[in-house]
Amino acid sequence: MKKLVAEFIGTMVLVTLGCGTAMLVGCDSSDGSAYLLTALAFGLVIVGMAYCVGNISGCHINPAVSLGVLISGGMTAKEFAGYVVAQCLGAFAGSGLLFAIFSLGSVTDMTGGFGSNGLAGVNGNIWAGLIVEIVLTFIFVLTILGVTSKKANHGSFGGLIIGLTLTLVHILGIGLTGTSVNPARSFGPALMAAITGTSAPITQLWVFIVGPLVGAALAAYVYKFLEASKEVK
Questions:
Q1: 0.90 cut: is pTM over it?
Q2: How many CB atoms are closer than 10 A to CB 233?
Q3: What ranges in the chain are assigned the alpha helix state H?
């Protein structure tokens, strides 16, 4: 139960600070500083949460990461299901906090939908969006599996490396899909946007669930292959 609470809190913080920053500064391609601020917000949350709840739950705070760990043999199917539920609930709670902050404070949501992901950057092309999310998640999860491997020797810098990698994939992905690489992060804001009647495209949500999960699965299988090949040598 403590692990699930940790995952709930971590994902709630991720959505509150990451999506909240996007809502505040916007994601207009003409303003590169907004891209960097949002990318740093997501990355820095991962750094902070890694050293906060990492020793409790592993700080997945992302169903795609949990899937990668599951395929790699690091958790059971039952644990995976619990993590995903906790992460989705945490993401929705974070979106609820943003709704309260922005509505009560009469602050303009520059994204128009609680930082929801969308396909505007790829001209609404579903396949392009899927490719972006698969590739970015593959890179992110592959990095996590390498950093957290028992054979890795990164000392206490693991959380920093993972956070910087998330920042990196956001720098490219924000202008294309808003960068999900995390089904829970996409689910929470999209659901809150639908409930509150904003213009966020809830019909596109499946892209940001399927894409990251496919990317994570590919990363897990590739990493298992690479590790096995290394052991044979």
A1: yes
A2: 4
A3: 2-14, 20-25, 32-57, 63-71, 77-104, 126-147, 158-173, 183-196, 207-232
